Amino acid sequence: MSGYHLAQINVARLVAPVDDPRIDDFRNALARINALAEAQPGFVWRMVGEADDATDIRPYADDQIAINVSVWESPDHLAAFVYRTEHRDFLRRGREWFEPAGGPYLAMWWTPAGELPGIEACVARLEHLREHGPSLHAFDLKTRFPAPAAETVA
To answer: Alpha-carbon distance 116 to 113, whole Å?
Structure first.
C-alpha cells in the first residue's frame, strides 16, 4: 500500500433541470447507486451536499451541471464499480439525461490517504486535465499514473 488513495471528479450537463421529469430515472436511482458504490471493495468516501447526494453542489454557474466526487483505494476499484456493477446500465443510458461532453469530464489524481478533496481543488484538477492533458497531477481511466511511492508521503 502506497499511503495514497485515488480521488476522482466527474461532471456532466443535464439535458434539463434536476427536478424535471425527464431526469426522474436518474434522480430516483441516485440513492441506490450511491449505496452500491459505498458497498464496493475499495470505496473510501464520496462528496455529498444537503441531501445524501451531490445534486445541490454547484461549483459552476450553470445549475444543470451535475457533479460527482469520490475517493477510492485504486483506479481498479473505481473501474470495477463503474463498469462491472449496475452503474454500467446508467452509463449506457447517459444520453437520456446528459448532453454530450465537449472534452474530458472525469479527472483522477492521487491524494494522501485520509485527505479528502474540496470542491474547488477537484474542479481545478479537471480544468488542468482539460488544458494540459493527462499527467500525474490529473489523469483519466485510459491514461493512469501509479501512486507515488510510500516514502514520498509527508
So the answer is: 8
